[in-house]
Queue: 3 jobs
Job 1
Amino acid sequence: MRPAAFALLLLPAALAARPDDPFAAKLEATDPPAALAEPVRAALSKDALVVRGGDAVVMRVWFRDAIPVKATPEQLKNGITYREIPEGALVGAVEFPKAFTDFRKQELAAGVYTLRFAVQPDIGDHDGTAPHPDFCLLSAAAKDRSAEPMEKKDLIELSSLVNEGKHPAVLLLFPNFDKGTAPKVLGKGDGVWVATTRRAVNAGGTAATLGFAVTVAGQWKQ
């Protein structure tokens, strides 16, 4: 085999390893934190999306066993998006071993938070603040005690308590259309990195999957 052809065969493996990437992600079998209310813990999977920067854990994300969505059979066939998740629905929970800075440059204390879906309002003061309008809002585990859906107004108020009422704590979601199930970490430019995975969803008894890409590093440039 010619050297050039051999190099081409090695290229995909070299790209997959990416030793220069600052983060790595994988699924690990671990129970949801005891800090969560029992109804929330019972709704979550027993595996976590674990993101590391070097040897240090940046975050652990537990998704629901099956995230509720509202979608027609045709939508399920063609592929659903975040917009089929009802706003206020419990998506999962996250644990930060150390303080974490969200996309709005808000520092979140180390600890455990619930994750509920919300869409950024389409109003003037939000123009240009994020590349995508889809988020999970974070609420302190001790204050979000139910797995049931929450009204968006109540969710915003609850999440804002994380930052003393200033603004909801956010976890920005990027689109993920990759059909692969193995987690990956991808750079989005300007210092933004996301961890990808696919998770089970349930549409009125019909099972499907939805790709997620959660922001693990990077902030709004202003």
Note: Residues 21-217 form one domain.
Job 2
Amino acid sequence: MSVSDGPLCIITGVGDATGASVVRKFAANGYRVAMIARNKKRLSALEKEIDGAMAFACDISDLHAFENTLSRIRDCLGSPQVLIHNAVAHTFGRLMETDPSELERNFRVNTTALLHFVRFFVPEMTARGTGAVIATGNTASLRGVPNYVLFAPTKAAQRVLCQSLARDLGPQGIHVGYVTVDAAIDVTWLGDTDTERPGWLTPPADWPHSREDFFAHPDGIAEEIYHMAHQHRTVWAFETTVRPFAEPW
């Protein structure tokens, strides 16, 4: 791996779908990319594959470990231009089927870690007067459904936190944006075939298009995240929603 002298982007939640695609997109456009995730083996593989990417294994639900990791990144790579919070913790289940303690774990990863992430670097970014903070969300941030009782509240809080940050930091030159993905993403950890996947992650029987058109492609999501992070400062968007062309909404 060779690390260029380009701007620095730090990405949390680098999995093998959206996170990896975002790393590739920024690296391809001259960024040095610090990748944060729990899976050290996956990060090491991406580090070898992607020129300009560097692995920092960390479980960000441990906020002390997370801040130590951010210190290592700063010492090694300097001050970032772009922060992307793609890490997510989720629990699916109805009210009486789930452990309420998992709500706090989900909140810590989805919302509290984002707050720590931004606070850690915001003095440098405001002093410079430039930067972007992008969080990835979904429609759970907009409405609650029975199966998301321990998940939707944490994503709603994440979105409102981003809105507060945008209104606070925007006048100081830092663009804060929220990318809502209204779609299933074809992630490999949920299985390779439709029979291995939960029903909400498989096309319905009467789906009139190809199977691939049911999913939001990680590369397409990465394109939108990159675009939002580079909007002209006179036309900043706070929130954009992406979905497959045939998705009913």
Note: Helices lie at 18-28, 40-49, 63-77, 101-128, 152-169, 218-229.
Job 3
Amino acid sequence: MSTNCFSAENEELNKINNQLKSLLKEKHEIGLHLHPDSDLALQTALKERFQNTSARFYNYNQINLFVKISKQLIQKNLGINPTSFRWGNWALNTDAVKALQENGFKIDSSATPRIKGHLKDGMHYDWSKVDEHYPWKLSLNDYQDTKHQNSKVLEIPIATFNFMGKTLRADPVYSELLKAAFDYYYKNADRSKKPFVFVIISHSIESTHEDESITQVIRDMEEINKHAKQFDHVEFLTINQGYNSIK
């Protein structure tokens, strides 16, 4: 979650916090999803406006403050200690790895193996050098180096797959393609020593209509869940539960 929601005030803020706490009671996990350029709560706390999403536009001290203050906002409002993280628009970098370790985060799930994008704007991200789909410890020297593994932060990447020469993220928007990607990983991922974590992404805004009607993303997500349940030895886990099963 982005801490922007904590920029709300009075009754609206109370409603938001009550809803988030109800998710925690239902055993969902809440982690930090950092968007410096659109997070008014973070900007208010730091008394500064930020123009870019991607970590590449900020120095270590700025990134460390983003992570530290955002974590404090979650602790203040929800009384929990988040340990999982995803940078907005997948735009992690090496300094961000260092900041995550400094602030006690155990898990990052920003990686989109073999995909890069927005290379000419403030949402720049690049995971094109990564060809690893099993979790690995991030490098403090180069976030895309999957061999070095000298940090304490475990990367649990978003599942990616190829279709007609293009690499796509595992997102309900792809519907039938997502089922085919799940089938491929189920058949081919080596699970002889550790489970394989298949991470699917979406956004809450895609799952919500103001009139409370069902969105297409919810329908598609329900379909992939039903599909996955047909297979043996498939478990639905929070990212921290996934971490505990493979660490």
Note: The CA atoms of residues 161 and 181 lie 6 Å apart.
